[in-house]
Design brief:
Blueprint lengths: L10 E9 L8 H14 L4 E7 L6 E7 L2 H12 L3 E11 L8 H12 L4 H23 L8 E9 L1 E2 L2 E2 L5 H16 L6 E6 L8 E7 L2 H11 L3 H6 E3 L3 E6 L1 H7 L5
Antiparallel strand pairs: 1-3, 1-4, 2-3, 2-11, 4-8, 5-9, 5-10, 5-11, 6-7, 8-9
Protein backbone atom coordinates (compact mmCIF):
# COMPACT_ATOMS: atom_id res chain seq x y z
CA UNK A 1 0.00 0.00 0.00
CA UNK A 2 1.22 3.51 -0.77
CA UNK A 3 2.14 5.76 2.12
CA UNK A 4 -0.62 7.84 3.71
CA UNK A 5 0.64 11.01 5.38
CA UNK A 6 -1.18 13.92 6.96
CA UNK A 7 -0.52 17.41 5.60
CA UNK A 8 0.70 18.34 9.08
CA UNK A 9 1.65 16.18 12.04
CA UNK A 10 2.40 12.51 12.67
CA UNK A 11 -0.01 9.73 13.49
CA UNK A 12 0.03 8.37 17.04
CA UNK A 13 -1.30 4.95 18.03
CA UNK A 14 -1.70 3.79 21.60
CA UNK A 15 -2.37 0.03 21.56
CA UNK A 16 -3.28 -1.99 24.64
CA UNK A 17 -3.31 -5.78 24.96
CA UNK A 18 -3.89 -8.71 27.22
CA UNK A 19 -1.77 -11.81 26.64
CA UNK A 20 -2.79 -15.09 25.04
CA UNK A 21 -0.85 -17.75 26.94
CA UNK A 22 -2.29 -20.71 25.01
CA UNK A 23 0.26 -23.41 24.10
CA UNK A 24 0.24 -22.42 20.43
CA UNK A 25 1.45 -18.93 21.37
CA UNK A 26 4.99 -20.14 22.05
CA UNK A 27 7.48 -18.16 20.00
CA UNK A 28 5.19 -15.16 19.70
CA UNK A 29 7.64 -12.91 21.49
CA UNK A 30 10.08 -12.96 18.61
CA UNK A 31 7.31 -11.95 16.18
CA UNK A 32 6.31 -9.04 18.37
CA UNK A 33 9.90 -7.87 18.84
CA UNK A 34 10.60 -8.13 15.12
CA UNK A 35 7.45 -6.18 14.20
CA UNK A 36 8.46 -3.35 16.52
CA UNK A 37 12.12 -3.46 15.42
CA UNK A 38 11.16 -3.34 11.74
CA UNK A 39 8.83 -0.40 12.42
CA UNK A 40 11.43 1.69 14.25
CA UNK A 41 14.06 0.88 11.60
CA UNK A 42 12.03 2.99 9.19
CA UNK A 43 12.94 6.42 10.56
CA UNK A 44 11.42 8.65 11.76
CA UNK A 45 8.92 6.06 13.02
CA UNK A 46 9.25 5.38 16.74
CA UNK A 47 7.70 3.00 19.23
CA UNK A 48 7.95 2.19 22.89
CA UNK A 49 6.61 -0.72 24.90
CA UNK A 50 5.38 -0.70 28.46
CA UNK A 51 3.85 -3.09 30.95
CA UNK A 52 0.61 -1.83 32.42
CA UNK A 53 -0.06 -1.61 36.14
CA UNK A 54 -3.58 -2.77 36.96
CA UNK A 55 -5.96 -4.93 34.96
CA UNK A 56 -6.95 -2.61 32.12
CA UNK A 57 -4.29 -4.28 29.99
CA UNK A 58 -1.06 -6.24 30.34
CA UNK A 59 1.03 -4.64 27.60
CA UNK A 60 1.02 -1.29 25.85
CA UNK A 61 2.66 -0.14 22.63
CA UNK A 62 2.88 3.53 21.66
CA UNK A 63 3.76 4.01 18.00
CA UNK A 64 4.30 7.29 16.21
CA UNK A 65 5.29 8.31 12.72
CA UNK A 66 4.30 10.07 9.52
CA UNK A 67 3.00 7.07 7.54
CA UNK A 68 -0.46 5.98 8.67
CA UNK A 69 -0.29 2.93 6.41
CA UNK A 70 2.87 1.85 8.24
CA UNK A 71 1.16 2.38 11.58
CA UNK A 72 -1.71 0.15 10.43
CA UNK A 73 0.73 -2.52 9.27
CA UNK A 74 2.36 -2.58 12.71
CA UNK A 75 -1.07 -2.85 14.31
CA UNK A 76 -1.95 -5.76 12.03
CA UNK A 77 1.33 -7.55 12.76
CA UNK A 78 0.79 -7.25 16.50
CA UNK A 79 -2.73 -8.62 16.10
CA UNK A 80 -1.20 -11.78 14.62
CA UNK A 81 0.91 -12.28 17.74
CA UNK A 82 -0.24 -13.90 21.01
CA UNK A 83 -1.90 -10.64 22.05
CA UNK A 84 -5.56 -9.86 22.71
CA UNK A 85 -6.51 -6.22 21.96
CA UNK A 86 -8.28 -4.50 24.86
CA UNK A 87 -8.28 -0.85 23.78
CA UNK A 88 -6.65 1.54 21.34
CA UNK A 89 -6.45 5.26 20.71
CA UNK A 90 -5.62 7.18 17.53
CA UNK A 91 -4.48 10.79 17.42
CA UNK A 92 -2.34 13.25 15.48
CA UNK A 93 0.50 15.47 16.64
CA UNK A 94 -0.42 19.13 16.32
CA UNK A 95 0.59 22.64 17.32
CA UNK A 96 -1.61 24.34 19.88
CA UNK A 97 -4.00 26.93 18.49
CA UNK A 98 -3.46 28.84 21.73
CA UNK A 99 0.33 29.07 21.47
CA UNK A 100 1.94 32.35 22.42
CA UNK A 101 2.82 34.74 19.63
CA UNK A 102 5.76 37.14 19.43
CA UNK A 103 3.40 39.99 20.38
CA UNK A 104 2.26 38.01 23.43
CA UNK A 105 5.89 37.65 24.53
CA UNK A 106 6.58 41.36 24.00
CA UNK A 107 3.58 42.18 26.17
CA UNK A 108 4.69 39.70 28.83
CA UNK A 109 8.19 41.22 28.92
CA UNK A 110 6.71 44.66 29.37
CA UNK A 111 4.05 43.80 31.94
CA UNK A 112 5.78 41.08 33.98
CA UNK A 113 9.47 41.98 33.74
CA UNK A 114 9.32 45.71 32.88
CA UNK A 115 11.58 45.12 29.89
CA UNK A 116 11.08 48.02 27.48
CA UNK A 117 14.57 48.89 26.21
CA UNK A 118 14.44 48.16 22.45
CA UNK A 119 17.86 46.49 22.35
CA UNK A 120 17.06 44.19 25.27
CA UNK A 121 13.60 43.44 23.90
CA UNK A 122 15.19 42.48 20.56
CA UNK A 123 17.68 40.15 22.26
CA UNK A 124 15.01 38.56 24.43
CA UNK A 125 12.64 38.08 21.48
CA UNK A 126 15.35 36.42 19.39
CA UNK A 127 16.04 33.97 22.20
CA UNK A 128 12.31 33.39 22.64
CA UNK A 129 11.88 32.64 18.93
CA UNK A 130 14.59 29.97 19.12
CA UNK A 131 12.93 28.32 22.12
CA UNK A 132 9.44 28.45 20.64
CA UNK A 133 10.61 27.01 17.33
CA UNK A 134 12.12 24.04 19.18
CA UNK A 135 8.90 23.68 21.19
CA UNK A 136 6.71 23.72 18.07
CA UNK A 137 8.94 21.23 16.28
CA UNK A 138 8.80 18.91 19.29
CA UNK A 139 5.00 19.04 19.27
CA UNK A 140 4.69 18.27 15.55
CA UNK A 141 7.65 15.89 15.17
CA UNK A 142 8.37 14.67 18.71
CA UNK A 143 11.19 12.44 19.83
CA UNK A 144 9.82 10.01 22.39
CA UNK A 145 11.68 10.42 25.68
CA UNK A 146 13.45 7.70 27.63
CA UNK A 147 11.60 7.80 30.93
CA UNK A 148 10.72 4.88 33.17
CA UNK A 149 6.97 5.48 33.54
CA UNK A 150 4.18 6.50 31.20
CA UNK A 151 0.57 7.59 31.74
CA UNK A 152 -1.99 8.02 28.97
CA UNK A 153 -5.52 9.40 29.05
CA UNK A 154 -7.94 10.98 26.56
CA UNK A 155 -9.84 14.17 27.30
CA UNK A 156 -12.33 16.62 25.84
CA UNK A 157 -13.62 20.09 26.59
CA UNK A 158 -17.13 20.31 28.07
CA UNK A 159 -19.88 21.82 25.95
CA UNK A 160 -22.90 21.92 28.27
CA UNK A 161 -24.86 24.88 29.64
CA UNK A 162 -22.77 27.71 31.06
CA UNK A 163 -19.66 25.53 30.82
CA UNK A 164 -19.53 25.32 27.04
CA UNK A 165 -15.86 25.79 26.14
CA UNK A 166 -16.63 26.34 22.48
CA UNK A 167 -19.07 29.16 23.22
CA UNK A 168 -16.28 31.25 24.78
CA UNK A 169 -14.55 33.91 22.64
CA UNK A 170 -11.15 32.81 21.33
CA UNK A 171 -9.31 35.47 23.35
CA UNK A 172 -10.84 34.17 26.59
CA UNK A 173 -10.04 30.55 25.73
CA UNK A 174 -6.45 31.53 24.93
CA UNK A 175 -6.06 33.40 28.22
CA UNK A 176 -7.38 30.42 30.16
CA UNK A 177 -5.09 28.00 28.31
CA UNK A 178 -2.04 30.17 28.93
CA UNK A 179 -2.76 29.96 32.66
CA UNK A 180 -3.26 26.21 32.34
CA UNK A 181 0.08 25.86 30.55
CA UNK A 182 1.82 27.73 33.36
CA UNK A 183 1.01 24.82 35.67
CA UNK A 184 2.51 22.36 33.20
CA UNK A 185 5.72 24.37 32.87
CA UNK A 186 6.30 24.05 36.61
CA UNK A 187 6.92 20.35 35.96
CA UNK A 188 9.57 20.92 33.29
CA UNK A 189 12.36 18.40 33.84
CA UNK A 190 10.11 16.14 35.91
CA UNK A 191 7.37 15.38 33.39
CA UNK A 192 7.45 15.33 29.59
CA UNK A 193 4.03 15.98 28.07
CA UNK A 194 2.82 15.05 24.59
CA UNK A 195 -0.64 16.37 23.74
CA UNK A 196 -2.10 15.08 20.48
CA UNK A 197 -5.34 15.91 18.68
CA UNK A 198 -8.06 13.37 18.01
CA UNK A 199 -11.22 15.33 17.13
CA UNK A 200 -12.83 13.37 14.32
CA UNK A 201 -10.32 10.54 14.70
CA UNK A 202 -11.36 8.87 17.96
CA UNK A 203 -13.91 9.22 20.77
CA UNK A 204 -12.29 12.14 22.61
CA UNK A 205 -10.74 15.41 21.44
CA UNK A 206 -7.18 14.95 22.68
CA UNK A 207 -4.82 12.28 23.87
CA UNK A 208 -2.43 13.18 26.69
CA UNK A 209 0.73 11.13 27.23
CA UNK A 210 2.91 11.88 30.25
CA UNK A 211 6.41 10.51 30.79
CA UNK A 212 8.41 10.68 34.02
CA UNK A 213 11.02 8.85 36.05
CA UNK A 214 8.98 9.64 39.17
CA UNK A 215 5.50 8.05 39.34
CA UNK A 216 4.46 10.66 41.91
CA UNK A 217 5.05 13.40 39.35
CA UNK A 218 2.47 11.79 37.04
CA UNK A 219 -0.10 12.11 39.82
CA UNK A 220 1.00 15.54 40.98
CA UNK A 221 0.79 17.30 37.61
CA UNK A 222 -2.72 16.00 36.92
CA UNK A 223 -3.88 16.73 40.47
CA UNK A 224 -2.59 20.31 40.36
CA UNK A 225 -4.14 20.95 36.96
CA UNK A 226 -7.52 19.75 38.26
CA UNK A 227 -7.71 22.99 40.29
CA UNK A 228 -7.12 25.15 37.24
CA UNK A 229 -10.31 26.72 35.80
CA UNK A 230 -9.77 25.03 32.43
CA UNK A 231 -10.11 21.64 34.14
CA UNK A 232 -12.54 22.61 36.91
CA UNK A 233 -15.19 24.01 34.56
CA UNK A 234 -14.37 22.63 31.13
CA UNK A 235 -12.35 19.41 31.42
CA UNK A 236 -13.75 15.93 30.82
CA UNK A 237 -11.40 12.97 31.23
CA UNK A 238 -11.38 9.40 29.98
CA UNK A 239 -9.66 6.36 31.52
CA UNK A 240 -6.07 6.59 32.70
CA UNK A 241 -3.57 3.85 31.85
CA UNK A 242 -0.17 3.84 33.56
CA UNK A 243 2.80 1.60 32.91
CA UNK A 244 6.52 0.93 33.16
CA UNK A 245 8.48 1.66 29.97
CA UNK A 246 10.80 -1.22 29.05
CA UNK A 247 12.62 -2.48 26.00
CA UNK A 248 10.44 -4.93 24.05
CA UNK A 249 12.25 -8.09 25.17
CA UNK A 250 11.99 -7.22 28.86
CA UNK A 251 8.37 -6.05 28.53
CA UNK A 252 7.42 -9.32 26.85
CA UNK A 253 9.24 -11.34 29.49
CA UNK A 254 7.42 -9.46 32.24
CA UNK A 255 4.01 -10.38 30.80
CA UNK A 256 4.96 -14.01 30.23
CA UNK A 257 5.48 -14.09 26.47
CA UNK A 258 8.30 -16.41 25.43
CA UNK A 259 10.62 -15.73 22.54
Amino acid sequence: MDTVEASSGWGVLHLFYDVDLAPNSVGGGSRIAKAISDFTAEAPHQALTFVVLGHKAALGVMAIGPDWARLQRLQHQLNQAPLIPTWSYLSLTEASEYAMTENDERERLRNEESVTDPAEVKTRIEAWNERIEHYREQRIHPQLPTRSTISFYPMSKRRTGADNWYALPFAQRKELMMGHATVGRRYAGRVTQLITGSTGLDDWEWGVTLFSDDPAALKDIVAEMRFDEVSVRYGEFGPFVTGLVLDPAEALRRVGIDE
